[in-house]
Design brief:
single chain; 288 residues; seven-stranded mixed sheet; five-stranded antiparallel sheet; globular
């Protein structure tokens, strides 16, 4: 890929952006912030100028949070909390950008391999002031979830039962013994993840099974037993994550290249505490 600067200036962006999130009678002026530098980009092909700037700035904010999280939160500590308390989200704070300063901006010509014409990309570099929020802690989304059993043999069918107390977007992950994470839902076969309050949902459902979808227990190659977990995340809005990084658990194929706990942490930290909930279910699989 060849990148060159595009000489014509298309945008005027104020040097300083400051967003103050306030509630009646309170201000965040005295709030302690951690400052992180990060970049964000957005293709200009199908968007107006304002939309392109917003997309690039939002990406830069998310990159700043992920960079901060990678330096400050230990995935090992999350695993310890998981083993001791049976939960993950309680150990993952909520971070947000409350101030940001534009350091650099540019428009680049990006020539992709095999293409004759260049695409224009807006690039922005920001200095982000990040705050840790505790409002809503302990008041997140609640739901009931269970497995058809907790001890399986190779070839046994696994089924997950979920009943949310309010309308929620639900994602299901499989945490393997080596702490790698596979994605069960959403997937190419089950992309709609909104569950209605007080309605019981089964995964796989009867209709899923009719289409040939199943969840079958099996031990890793060369092992007689394994202990794994299902992590169910409920959120007010659809969970945003890198689907290419979190490998789908389909067709029994697993090449070992999938996300780790720190990738999940980066996904969760941008969700307010009051807008998320979890259920962690441990189970055992034996060869026979």
């Amino acid at each position: 890929m060849k990148i060159s600067k595009y000489k014509k200036t298309l945008f005027y962006v104020p040097v300083l952006f400051v967003f103050l999130f306030t509630c009646p009678g309170s201000f965040l002026m005295a709030q302690e912030l951690t400052w992180v530098t990060a970049e964000g980009t957005a293709l200009m092909d199908n968007h107006g100028e304002e939309d392109v700037k917003k997309i690039a700035l939002k990406t830069a904010e998310q990159n700043a949070i992920e960079k901060f999280v990678g330096d400050s939160i230990s995935a090992e500590a999350i695993i310890v909390n998981l083993r001791l308390s049976g939960g993950i989200l309680g150990a993952i704070p909520y971070f947000r950008v409350v101030k940001k300063e534009i350091l650099e901006e540019d428009v680049l010509e990006v020539v992709k391999n095999g293409e004759a014409t260049a695409s224009l990309t807006y690039k922005v570099k920001i200095k982000a002031g990040i705050s840790e929020e505790s409002e809503g802690n302990g008041k997140g989304i609640s739901f009931n979830a269970s497995l058809n059993k907790t001890s399986f043999k190779n070839g046994d069918e696994i089924q997950i039962r979920i009943t949310p107390t309010k309308d929620s977007y639900v994602s299901i992950f499989n945490i393997l013994e080596d702490e790698k994470i596979l994605r069960l839902m959403p997937s190419r076969f089950k992309n709609e993840t909104l569950l209605k309050a007080n309605e019981t949902f089964y995964f796989p459902s009867t209709s899923d099974k009719a289409r040939g979808m199943s969840l079958i227990a099996h031990t890793p190659e060369g092992k007689k037993s394994t202990t794994e977990m299902f992590l169910i995340l409920a959120s007010k809005h659809p969970l945003k994550f890198d689907k290419d990084k979190f490998q789908e658990a389909v067709f029994g194929i697993y090449n070992g290249k999938t996300a780790f706990m720190n990738d999940l942490i980066k996904t969760v930290v941008s969700i307010p505490l009051s807008d998320r909930g979890e259920k962690l279910m441990q189970y055992e699989i034996r060869e026979k």
